[in-house]
């Protein structure tokens, strides 16, 4: 059975973990074993995970005795080793492949840094009484520019009658981008200010692989954190 020798350790609400869950669904590898880790209890630092991943982080993935960590590495591994299972997420056609790879790395290197790391992580790790307002405004401006860049990308996509970040099909670029967008909404982004991004967010929310793997902790509560409300 597809995926029956696999096991995934993951945390609800983690965009890297969600990324891997989406790929497993798209590749029709749903028979994998899984263990949802309790982050509050720091279960990822326990022996079961550390013996497989010395960093004590998730996602941690096992496939028939092979251990692999880091979400991007896991996604790449699944596409390379199980390319013919389910949906191919990195097209073979050279021109389309180049765009998918570019958007993947832009989502990871630019979107994640500009919005999630620069603002959300700063606010989470810094006592609110010590927030530097001038520094935050600089970070917000940097993030707005990044969001507007994706808004421009999606304007062209939607004008062409497509729904996905690269053309007319769901690819690994969407796997990389969508969890970041949803994470930002969760942390206070008023996505209605970015209509093309909002259309993308709402459309892909209905995709079975995304709907099925939506973070359980997010389903339990609609609480929003206001870190991004100035974007």
UniProtKB/TrEMBL annotation:
The keyword Transcription regulation does not apply. Residues 93-223 form the GST C-terminal domain. Pfam families: GST_C, GST_N. Residues 4-86 form the GST N-terminal domain. One of its GO terms (molecular function) is transferase activity. Keywords: Transferase. PANTHER family: GLUTATHIONE S-TRANSFERASE GSTA, GLUTATHIONE S-TRANSFERASE-RELATED. Belongs to the GST superfamily. This is Glutathione S-transferase A. It comes from Mizuhopecten yessoensis.
């Amino acid at each position: 059975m597809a995926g029956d020798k696999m096991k995934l350790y993951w945390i609800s609400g983690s965009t890297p973990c969600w990324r891997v869950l989406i790929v497993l669904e798209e590749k029709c590898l749903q028979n994998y074993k899984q263990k949802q880790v309790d982050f509050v209890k720091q279960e990822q630092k326990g022996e079961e995970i550390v013996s497989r991943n010395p960093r004590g982080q998730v996602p941690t993935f096992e496939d028939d005795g092979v251990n692999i960590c880091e979400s991007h590495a896991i996604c790449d591994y699944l596409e390379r080793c199980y390319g013919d299972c389910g949906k191919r997420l990195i097209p073979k056609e050279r021109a389309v492949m180049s765009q998918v790879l570019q958007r993947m790395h832009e989502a990871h290197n630019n979107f994640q840094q500009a919005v999630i790391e620069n603002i959300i992580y700063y606010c989470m790790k810094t006592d609110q009484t010590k927030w530097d307002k001038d520094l935050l405004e600089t970070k917000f401006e940097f993030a707005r520019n990044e969001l507007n860049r994706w808004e421009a990308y999606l304007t062209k996509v939607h004008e062409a009658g497509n729904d996905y970040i690269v053309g007319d099909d769901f690819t690994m670029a969407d796997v990389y981008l969508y969890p970041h967008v949803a994470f930002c909404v969760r942390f206070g982004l008023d996505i209605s200010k970015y209509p093309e991004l909002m259309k993308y967010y709402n459309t892909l929310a209905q995709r079975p692989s995304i709907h099925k793997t939506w973070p359980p902790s997010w389903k339990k509560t609609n609480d929003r954190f206001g870190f991004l409300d100035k974007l």
